[in-house]
Amino acid sequence: MEIEIKKLTPDMADEYLRYFEEVAFTDHEEWSNCYCLESHIPREENEATFTDRALRREKAKKLVEDGVMQGYLVYSGGDVIGWCNAGDKTSYGPIMSEGEFETRKNPGRGEIKVVYCFEIAPGYRGKGITHQLLERILQDAKEEGYSYVEAYPFLDRDFEYQYHGPVSLYEKHGFVQIAEKSWFWIMQRSMAVKAEQG
Length: 198
Hints:
This protein is an alpha+beta fold. The chain is 32% helix and 22% strand. The two termini are 26 Å apart. It has a single domain, classed as Gcn5-related N-acetyltransferase (GNAT) (Aminopeptidase).
């Protein structure tokens, strides 16, 4: 299917919020307060505030407007139909502060790009959009000079909502598993190796 992928910019905050509030979770209203905050606030705070939509909305809006929340919106016919949270590892507070996610000691900005979450709207899933998103992310990472791209798929492959992306997705795009943690794998792709392979 024909889609357009746009990198999230601060002026797209309203489109980002509208997607989460009106489109993303029409089949799971109980998840509609997500706003993809799990990757940017401590786990305890994420769980404690999950029912407070107004608070979470304001936090998400500020993160987008400040350029901290990074990623890609997917459009079809002018409507947002998907999202991927992907950006510089140093922009993700919980990932940088939790030892389980460490793959390099104090990585510098521009060294590791993270793919954290996919959310495709009902009716558009299973159409290869996540593959197109990941291809775009890898292309951008190469052009931006990143050394690695990382992802954190769940150990539980039977979990209903694989919002970190399934292991099979990453394997198809040249990622390798470099560590097994308490609830996720760390999968990584070296941009230098792939560039040499063509």
